[in-house]
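>> received
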Amino acid sequence: MPQPQGLCIDISGVLHEEGEIVAGSRDAIARLRRAGVPLRFLTNTSRKPSRAVLDQLRDLGVGATEEEVLTAPAAVARFLEARNLKPWLLVHPDIEEEFEPAPYSDADAVVVCDAGDRFDYRRLDQAFRLLMAGTPLLAVGMNRYFKQSDGLHLDAGPFIRALEYAAGVEATIIGKPGEAMFHEACDSMGLAPGDCLMIGDDVEADIGGARRAGLEAALVTTGKYRESDHDRATELGAGVFDDIAAVVSHWF
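>> returned
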């Protein structure tokens, strides 16, 4: 593709790993800002509210404005508000502030994010019963796993799939790999999807989602990347790079 006019950038695994800045990423962002390239930071992270994600970027020395940060939980909250839906939450306690939850008896939507230890039988069963009564299922994304310093851990995707299977429903995905979040990012930059490049470490959520949404994509081998992801990224028409610095050097 020609030089992209706007960039969508995943955060965890691309800019930092477990809070430690990925080598070269700070300089890469600074290089993009000097070139006047509009940026949007997209994350499915659902254990931190938007304000904490913004603070983290500033602490990393990357810097970002509120407009530049798009989190999946905040996107779900906007979706609910626009449709006047009252959610019952199966989410991590740290992001409850993003929503206006409803009592179980009054809920007309089920929202599932990465809930950590809250993914227990009782809460999953409660979600299942609401879904069986016809309540729609909304989710931040279908990420299968995430990486921490001690290795890989289950993300929300496997639990969402279990609820879909049990209740015979299909979740509405608001975050990655759903198209809505990518299109919102492009629209906010005043650009068409084909003029934007997504940089991520998750071959399905970042790369597959971006390609289906019409964006170009680049997979980095930092973060959760595994060798088996290389061929999948190539099949999707994405480039594979050592890190975000290599991506930026390639085009800028």
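>> Residues 6-44+177-251 form a domain with the Rossmann fold fold (CATH 3.40.50.1000).
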